[in-house]
Write a structure and sequence with these properties.
Helices cover 36% and strands 20% of the residues. It is an alpha/beta fold. It has two domains: 3-155, Rossmann fold; 174-528, L-fucose/L-arabinose isomerase, C-terminal (L-fucose Isomerase, Chain A, domain 3, Alpha-Beta Barrel). Strand 3 (78-82), helix 3 (92-97) and strand 4 (102-107) form a beta-alpha-beta unit.
């Protein structure tokens, strides 16, 4: 008897992104369906169809997802196939009501952020407590893919290898003592996350319930992006010009053109300078320890992108921002920004800044998308090298050459119609600590490990950029003790937090101090690849 399986494809909320990316999604689905049919005798039925009027076949809203799921038998197994960035809330409500087994699938490609989209959906399902199975493949022919699919079809699940994970075993080293002291002091004084509108791009996983933050002494100041627009409007033109001149004086490379619809213009960057000044002042006025700008929906139609703003805020050396009394806001250190209002990254950023400051390590941290990875085609290293890449938030201090090695390209118009400069660059080589805070089993967890940012030949780095989004900042990352498939199976986010240390010993100290601080706050800490 032929086995029946349903298929859904969650897409973007932005029509232009859905239209541009649809062909890649369609080709991926056809390849996947052919393998399932020919090898497993599976009849795959899409629960929604191509829409001629929209020019794509994605579920592009929460309502569209609810309607599609309402028309199907809830007991039939379902696949969510992704080769693009997707908004998890388009399918999450339907999946939560669905009774059949769930399989999330992504193609192993950097072209569009399908792996990123799938990881976000996985993390959202994890937070919601809904069981699922996940897999990924370049051509749907490899052993792990077939092992996963066969098990899922037969039993409804598959257990990936997570032998690289172990619970943090608290010790009494000097860095751990420092971490615990910091945790107690920070809880006592209280910390505030400045949140410019929650729920960016359907990232349910990026919203931490307030009650999980309270025991740590962390609270949210919910700020309005309409208020941010007003605050930007009253920043004097002369002040924005001074800010831009400061950036250019450090050697930052802006790639200006004449056509604002497709090219970067000076006025777009001046608007970003106004946002940089206005956002920091609003957050400072409310006593926020970190801030997150949603940008995306809403602001994308009103002003240039926030990404240059975010990179500047996350840098210790940055254009000065004055209060009305003339004093400087956070002079000489980052004003932690969590890209896309990812509150999990916001908590991690506050924690990291405190630890690195206490240990005398570099103060900058950022999140990246776990975008893609590949072997080094030039053969300079045998290690698996990830492409960590994000539209914004990466500080110039992370780039080879600092400001002088950083570039401002126009953001892609299909995502960012109003333009704005990226804060692009190639991360310098060095020792890193990576981590991710996430919600699982109604509590906060942290996965943490060690790795390195590695230098690759220029042609190899360019190949990787060209295979992804070449105008965005990138880190060529190697993770210690964690394979590609272990990382994909375990990681509970589209984002990964990274910070540098001066050397390997210093990075080990940061890891221990961060682990102890988080554990003292009641976060369940998991060491990854450190056995």
């Amino acid at each position: 008897m032929e086995k029946r399986v349903l298929l859904a494809a969650s897409g973007d909320l932005r029509p232009t992104a859905n239209q541009v990316c649809w062909q890649a999604q369609h080709e991926m689905e056809q390849q996947l369906m052919a393998v399932l049919s020919n090898r497993y005798g599976v009849n795959v039925e899409r629960i929604h169809q191509y829409d001629n009027s929209k020019g794509h076949g994605f579920l592009d809203s929460q309502r569209a997802g609810l309607e599609a799921f309402s028309r199907v038998d809830p007991t039939v197994p379902i696949i969510v196939a992704e080769s693009v960035w997707q908004y998890s809330h388009h399918v999450l409500p339907g999946l939560l009501k669905h009774k059949g087994p769930i399989l999330t699938v992504a193609n192993w490609s950097g072209q569009w952020p399908g792996l990123v989209g799938m990881l976000n959906l996985n993390a959202s399902l994890t937070k919601a407590g809904r069981a699922y199975t996940t897999t990924w493949s370049e051509d749907f022919q490899d052993y792990l893919f077939h092992q996963t699919v066969a098990s899922w079809l037969n039993t409804g699940s598959f257990q990936h290898d997570e032998s690289h994970v172990a619970p943090y075993n608290p010790g009494n080293s000097a860095p751990e003592q420092t971490g615990r002291r910091l945790a107690q002091a920070m809880r006592s004084s209280g910390m505030i996350l400045g949140v410019f509108d929650e729920g960016c791009m359907g990232m349910y996983n990026a919203i931490i319930p307030d009650e999980l933050l309270f025991p740590m002494g962390i609270y949210k100041e919910r700020l309005s992006q309409s208020a941010l627009l007003y605050a930007m409007s009253v920043v004097p033109q002369e002040e924005a010009e001074v800010c831009l001149q400061w950036i250019e004086s450090r050697g930052f490379n802006f790639h200006f053109g004449a056509d604002p619809k497709e090219e970067l213009t000076r006025e777009q960057v001046l608007s970003q300078c106004r946002m940089y000044l206005a956002a920091a002042r609003m957050a400072d006025e409310m006593g926020c320890d970190a801030l997150g700008i949603q940008y995306q929906q809403g602001l994308k139609d009103m002003c240039p992108a926030s990404d240059l703003v975010e990179g500047l805020l996350n840098n210790a050396e940055r254009p000065p921002i004055t209060r009305p009394n003339g004093s400087l806001i956070r002079d000489g250190e980052p004003y932690v920004h969590f890209n896309e209002v990812d509150e999990c990254a916001g908590v991690d950023g506050i924690l990291t800044l405190a630890v690195n400051r206490a240990l005398g390590q570099p103060l900058e941290s950022t999140l990246h998308d776990l975008r893609w990875g590949d072997k080094d085609r030039t053969g300079t290293t045998d290690e698996y090298v990830w492409v960590f890449e994000i539209s914004g938030g990466a500080p110039p201090a992370h780039h080879v050459g600092g400001y002088a090695g950083s570039h401002g390209y126009r953001q892609p118009s299909m995502y960012f119609p109003s333009g704005g400069a990226t804060c692009s660059g190639i991360s310098h080589p060095g020792e890193i600590v990576w981590s991710r805070i996430y919600v699982d089993s109604n509590g906060l967890n942290m996965d943490i490990g060690r790795g390195r940012s590695v230098e690759l030949p220029a042609e190899e780095t360019q190949r990787r950029l060209d295979a992804t989004t070449p105008v965005w900042p990138v880190m060529n990352g190697v993770l210690d003790g964690v394979t590609r498939d272990q990382m994909m199976a375990r990681h509970k986010s589209n984002h990964i937090q990274v910070t540098f240390a001066h050397d390997a010993s210093g990075a080990d100290d940061v890891l221990r101090a961060k682990s102890a601080l988080a554990a003292e706050w009641g976060i369940r800490v998991h060491w990854c690849g450190l056995g």
